[in-house]
Specification:
The protein has 542 residues and is an alpha/beta fold. The chain has 22 helices and 11 strands. An 8-stranded mixed sheet has the order 1-7-8-6-2-5-3-4, sandwiched between helices. The protein has a 3-stranded mixed sheet with strand order 9-11-10, covered by helices on one side. Helix 16 packs across helix 17 and helix 18 runs antiparallel to helix 19. The longest helix has 24 residues. It is globular, with a radius of gyration of 25 Å.
C-alpha cells in the first residue's frame, strides 16, 4: 500500500466510523427516508467538472431563485451561506427564505428583524430549541446580515406534530409553494433559499416550484449543494481534494466542497451527543452522566500518530471540559493564583489547551477543529517531553506561537479544508478597525512579529521587534494568528512532499519550555518559511 492509498484508507475508515455512530444514535432509516436519500444521491452520479467562483457568480446573475444546501450541525455550512450572500451585488434586491423558521412565525420574525423584540424573546417565541434545536449561534450571522442590509427573511417550514421521513414530501410541497409565491409577488427580487441539502434534489423542492411556475422556470433556479460525499472521494482518488473548492454538475447546479465528509459527520455526532448530554443533565446532576470527549480526541491522536509514524498512545490522555469538577480540583491544587487566572482567561476565550504538569487536556468547544488541535497538542507534549505550561509573556511568546502552529498543523491532518489567516488578511482586518477597537493591538503585534521574523531569517539578526503591547493577552491572540499561518505553510509543504514525516517528527521532539527554544524557533522558521504559501488570502475561498 503506497502513501496515498494509506492516506485515503485512514480517512475512509474514519468517515465510515462516523456515519455508523450517527446511524446508531438516530436509528435505522425508514424506507421513505432511504428512497429520499436515493433520489438525492443520483444528483452526484452525473459527470462534473472543477469550477470557479466567477462561474458561480455569472450563473447567479442569470437566476431568480438560488437554493443553497444546509447541513444543520456543521457551522462551516452556514458560514458558506453568509459568504455567498456577501458576494451578491448590493444593487440586487434579495429576499432570504429559510427552512429554520416556520412560515406561521412570520410576524415574530418581522418583529425581531425590526428590533421590536430581543433575541432571547424571539427565540423563546418561535420555540427555537424544541422546533429546530441546532445551535442558534451558527445561524445568527445570517440574521445579522439581513438586519444590516434591511433584507426580508421569510420562514419556509411547516409545523408538524412529529417531523419524520413521512412528512418530507409535505414539507417540500409547502416550501415549493411558498417560494413560488415569493417569486410571483416579488418578480424583481432574487429569492435566496436556505434549506437542507437533501431537499435540493431536482425531484424534491425544485420540482414543486416548477409544478407551479412551469417547467421552463427550472432554468432560473440555481442549486448549490454542499460537501457531497461521492464527489469528495472522487476528488480524493484524483488527488484534487485540497485544490478543488467548487464543482459544476450542470449549467445551474454546483457543489461547494468546504469540509471533508468525516468532519461533517463528526460534527453531527458531537451535536447529537451534546443534545443527549443536555437531556441527561436535566434528569441527573451526576457528573458521570456528562459527555466524555476523550474518545473523540483519542481517535484523532491515533490518526495523527499513524499518519506521522509516531508511537504515541492514548494511555495518558484525559480530556476535560469546563463542566468537569475534577478538572477544576486538579487545577486549583497544582497551580498558583497567577497561573490559575491565566487558565481561566484561556477558558473564557474558548481556547483549548494541554496542561503537561497534570496531564490534562482541556477542550473548549465540541468541534472537529478544536478536538483535532487538542489531539495534536497532546501528541506534541508526549513527543517533546514538555513539562511546563506556558504562561509568561513575552518570555514564552515564541513557544506559544510554535504550540499554536503545531496544533493547527495537526488539525489540518484531520480537516485539510481548514484555512488560516494570512498577512493579507491581517492587514485587511487592521485597515477596517478603529483606533480603540479590541484586538487591534494583537493584530499589530502579529504583523510586526511576522516582519521581524522575516528580517531575522533573511540575514538581519539584530533587527528589533517594532511593537510593544500593553496587554499580555495580545501575545496570546497574536500567537494564535501566527501559529495558524505557520501550521498552514507546514501542512502545505508536508502534503506536497517537500518536507518529510521524519522532519516533522524531529520538529515535534523540541520542547518549548527549555531555555534554548527561542534560538531553535528561528531554525524551525527558516525551514518552514522556505515552503510556498498555500494561498494569498483565505477570503479567496468560498
Amino acid at each position: 500500500m503506497n502513501d496515498l492509498q494509506k492516506w485515503i484508507r485512514i480517512r475512509k475508515d474514519l468517515y465510515l466510523q462516523m456515519r455508523k455512530q450517527v446511524r446508531h444514535r438516530l436509528g435505522e432509516d425508514t424506507p421513505e427516508l432511504m428512497h429520499y436519500h436515493k433520489v438525492y444521491d443520483k444528483e452526484f452520479s452525473k459527470k462534473w467538472t472543477a469550477s470557479t467562483k466567477e462561474a458561480l457568480w455569472e450563473q447567479m446573475a442569470q437566476s431568480q431563485v438560488v437554493m443553497v444546501g444546509d447541513f444543520h450541525a456543521l457551522h462551516q455550512s452556514q458560514k458558506a451561506q453568509v459568504r455567498i450572500l456577501r458576494h451578491i451585488p448590493k444593487d440586487r434586491k434579495i429576499i432570504l427564505a429559510v427552512e429554520f423558521f416556520e412560515a406561521a412565525d412570520q410576524e415574530k420574525i418581522n418583529k425581531y428583524l425590526a428590533g421590536k423584540i430581543s433575541e432571547r424573546e424571539f427565540l423563546k417565541s418561535v420555540q427555537w430549541q424544541s422546533k429546530w434545536g441546532f445551535p442558534w449561534e451558527h445561524y445568527r450571522p445570517l440574521l445579522r446580515w439581513a438586519q444590516k442590509h434591511k433584507i426580508s427573511v421569510q420562514g419556509l417550514n411547516k409545523s408538524y406534530k412529529k417531523r419524520n421521513a413521512a412528512t418530507l414530501k409535505s414539507r417540500d410541497v409547502f416550501a415549493g409553494k411558498k417560494i413560488a409565491e415569493l417569486v410571483r409577488q416579488n418578480p424583481e427580487h432574487l429569492i435566496f433559499v436556505i434549506y437542507g441539502d437533501l431537499h435540493l434534489a431536482s425531484s424534491h423542492i425544485p420540482k414543486e416550484i416548477e409544478n407551479i411556475l412551469g417547467r421552463s422556470f427550472g432554468k432560473k433556479i440555481l442549486r448549490i449543494f454542499q460537501n457531497a460525499e461521492q464527489i469528495y472521494f472522487q476528488l480524493l482518488n484524483r488527488e484534487l481534494e485540497a485544490t478543488t473548492d467548487l464543482v459544476r454538475i450542470s449549467q445551474n447546479t454546483f457543489c461547494l466542497m468546504s469540509v471533508p465528509p468525516w468532519v461533517k459527520w463528526q460534527n453531527y455526532l458531537m451535536y447529537l451527543e451534546q443534545a443527549y448530554d443536555v437531556e441527561l443533565d436535566e434528569d441527573d446532576d451526576d457528573e458521570d452522566s456528562f459527555l466524555d470527549y476523550t474518545d473523540h480526541v483519542g481517535r484523532y491522536v491515533k490518526i495523527i500518530s499513524e499518519e506521522l509514524g509516531l508511537a504515541v498512545t492514548n494511555a495518558n490522555l484525559s480530556v476535560y471540559t469546563a463542566r468537569d469538577t475534577s478538572f477544576w480540583s486538579q487545577v486549583r491544587e497544582h497551580y498558583d493564583v497567577k497561573k490559575l487566572r491565566w487558565i481561566e482567561s484561556l477558558i473564557a476565550e474558548e481556547m483549548s489547551f494541554y496542561l503537561p504538569e497534570i496531564g490534562a487536556a482541556y477542550l473548549a468547544r465540541g468541534t472537529v477543529n478544536h478536538a483535532a488541535s487538542l489531539a495534536m497538542r497532546y501528541v506534541h507534549a508526549q513527543s517533546s517531553g514538555t513539562k511546563r505550561f506556558l504562561t509568561e509573556m513575552p518570555q514564552d511568546f515564541f513557544g506559544f506561537i510554535w504550540l499554536e502552529g503545531v496544533a493547527y498543523f495537526g488539525s489540518k491532518i484531520i480537516n485539510h479544508k481548514r484555512k488560516a489567516d494570512t498577512i493579507a488578511d491581517i492587514k485587511a482586518s487592521l485597515s477596517s478597525r478603529g483606533p480603540s477597537d479590541l484586538g487591534k493591538e494583537a493584530l499589530q503585534l502579529a504583523l510586526a512579529q511576522k516582519m521581524h521574523e522575516l528580517m531575522v531569517i533573511t540575514g538581519v539578526p539584530q533587527h528589533r521587534l517594532q511593537a510593544s503591547p500593553r496587554k499580555k493577552w495580545s501575545y496570546v491572540l497574536a500567537a494564535n494568528l501566527l501559529g495558524g499561518m505557520l501550521g498552514e505553510r507546514l501542512y502545505g509543504g508536508y502534503r506536497k512532499k517537500m518536507i518529510s514525516p521524519a522532519t516533522i517528527i524531529n520538529f515535534l521532539k523540541k520542547p518549548v519550555d527549555g531555555s534554548g527554544f527561542n534560538v531553535a524557533y528561528y531554525d524551525l522558521l527558516e525551514v518552514i518559511e522556505s515552503l510556498p504559501a498555500p494561498f494569498h488570502s483565505k477570503r479567496e475561498k468560498l
